[in-house]
Amino acid sequence: MGSVRxxxxxxxxxxLSWVDVVIELAAxxxxxxxxxxxxxPALEWARARSRRTRELVGLWTGEEIPSPYLPAPAEPExxxxxxxxxxxxxxxxxxxxxxxxxxxxxxxxxATGRELAWQLINPVVAVVFAAFxxxxxxxxxxxxxxxxxxxxxPRPARKRTRLARRSELLGQLFGLYLISLALLTTALVQLVxxxxxxxxxxxxxxxxxxxxxxxxxxxENWTGLRIAxxxxxxPAPPVARADGYYQYGKRLYDQPWAPLRRNRARWIxxxxxxxxxxxxxxxxxxxxxxxxxxxxxxxxxxxxxxVSLWIGRMFTDLSVLSGWFEMVxxxxxxxxxxxxxxxxxxxxxxxxxxxxxxxxxxxAARLGRLLLGPTEAAQLAQRxxxxxxxxxxxxxxxxxxxxxxxxxxxxxxxxxxxxxGMQLGAVEALIDQDPAAAKELAAQLRTAxxxxxxxxxxxxxxxxxxVLVERGLTDAVRAVALDSPLKVEVxxxxxxxxxxxxxxxxxxxxxxxxxxxxxxxxxxxxxxxxEYLDGLLRITVxxxxxxxxEAARGSGIRGIERRLGGFDGRLTLVSPPGGPTEAxxxxxxxxxxxxxxxxxxxxxSTCSETV
Length: 611
Fold this sequence. Notes:
- By secondary structure, this protein is of the alpha+beta class.
- The chain has 4 domains: 2-70 and 109-152, no CATH class; 159-232 and 271-374, no CATH class; 388-462; 465-588, Heat Shock Protein 90 (2-Layer Sandwich), CATH 3.30.565.
- Helix content is 65%, strand content 8%.
- It has 19 helices and 9 strands.
- The protein has a 5-stranded mixed β-sheet with strand order 5-6-7-9-8, covered by helices on one side. Strands 1-2 form a two-stranded antiparallel ribbon. Strands 3-4 form a two-stranded antiparallel sheet.
- The termini are far apart.
- Residues 591-611 are annotated as: Disordered.
C-alpha cells in the first residue's frame, strides 16, 4: 500500500504540471506582445515542480536524478567607477543585466525544451503508473523513476545522424527565408517613409539594418560563410568653431543637433548599402522561396503519405487516401503490397528532398553575401577605419610597454645599481681600516650583482624571450607550459618559423591566456593547439575553468586584441558560464622554412649563470 500511496502522490504532483503549462503559455503570449519580464520567472516557477519530483523519486526509489540544467550565470560585477557593464552598455544598477543573463540562460538551456514536453506528457503517464502500482507495487515506482530520469535527468551529447543534420539544414533555410520576409517588410516601410515622411527615413534605415545584420549573423552561424557589414563609417559629431557656432555647409547653428541630423541623413542617403539592403529585401524572399518550397513540398508529401497509408487507413477508406498518390501520377493503392511499395516511394521523396539542403543553404548564404555584403568603396572605407583604429591601438600598446620597461628599470635595476655604488664606496673606505668588513660588503655586492643580473634577464624575457629566438614559437610555449601551475598540453606544431614580431605577439597572447585561466578561470587543465593553414596561424587555447570570461571586461584580453590588431589578427573568445573557455588566436603571416637554432649568448641565455 505504501507504493500505491506514493504513486498517487506523484500523480497528483504531476497533474499540477498542467497548471505550470498554462502559466508558461500565458507568459509566452505576453512575451510575443512585448512584455518580456514574465517568461523567465514562469519557467523558473515550473522548475520548482520538477525539482520536487526528482527529490521524491530519489527518496522513494533510490534513483538519484541530478539536475539537468546548465550552470546559472554569474552575478554582475560592479566596476571601479561604480557602473555595471554589459558589452558596450553601462548601467547604474545590475537588475537589467541579471535579468537578461537569466533569460538567455533559461531560453538556451536544452533541458528547458525537454521539461516543457515532460510537463505536457507526464500527468497522463503518472496516472497510468499510479494505476499500474495497484498490481505491480514497487516495480511501478521504479518504472516511473526511469521515465522521470529520461526526461529530467542530464543527457550526454549524442552525435546527430546525417538525416537529422539535413533536416536541421532545411529548417535553417526556412529560417533565412523568414528573416528575408522581415527584410521585405522593412524595405516596404522604408519606401513609404521616404515618400511620406523623409525626416524619419534615417531612423527607419537604421532599424532595418539590424534585421540585415541578423541575416548576416545567422548565415555565418549556419554555413560558416562570413558576410561583412557593408556600411560606411558613421560621421563624427560636429565640432564647434572658434566662435561657438556649428557649421554645416554655408550655414551656422548655435546647437549641434541640426548639423548632426543633416550629417546623419547625408550619410544614410549617400551610402550605397542603404539601397542595396532595400533591393535585397525585394529579391531575397523570392529567391529563397524558390529554394525551399520544392524540398518542403516533397517532405510534406512523403511524410503525409506514410502517415495516411498506415494510420489514416484506420479511419478512412483506402480508395480515398489513394488520391494523394494519384495526384502526382502514381498508381492507385489497392492493397497491403501496393501500400508497402508507395511507402518506399514516399521515403525516397523525403530523402530526395533532404539531399540538396547543404547546397541550397550555401547558395542562399552566397546570394545574401552578394546582396548584403560590402561594395568595394565600403571595403576601402572600413579598411581605412580599421587601420586608423589599429594605429591608435598599437601606439597605446607601445606607450604602455615603454612605460612598463621604464618603471621596471627605474624601480628595479636602477635602484640596485645605486645601492651597489654606495656599497662600493663603503668598501673603498673600509678596505684599509677593516678588511674583514670590506670582504663582507664585497660578498654582499656579489650577491646583489647576481640578483640584478637575474632581474635584468627577467626584464629581457618580458621584452623578447631568448627561448623564442632560439627555439621558435611552439618550443617557447612548451617552456611556458612547464612553468605553469596548470596541466598544459601543447598539441600540433608549426613546420617553420614566422616573422619574429608575429612570434612575439602570439607568444605573449598565449602567456596572457594561460595566466587568465589560472588566475580568473580557476582551471586545472589547458590545451594549446597550433595550426597553420593558408597563410593563417591559428592557436586554440581551451581550459576546463568556470567560464564566463568577457572580452569587454578584461584589460588583459583587451591588450591581446590590441597586440593582434597590429598584425591584422583577431581573438575569438567563447566562454559560456560553467565553461569550458575556448580562445582562438588568428594571425595572418608567411611561413619561412625551419632555420638552425640561434647559438645561446652567455649574457642573455635562460640557462647561463655567467655573472
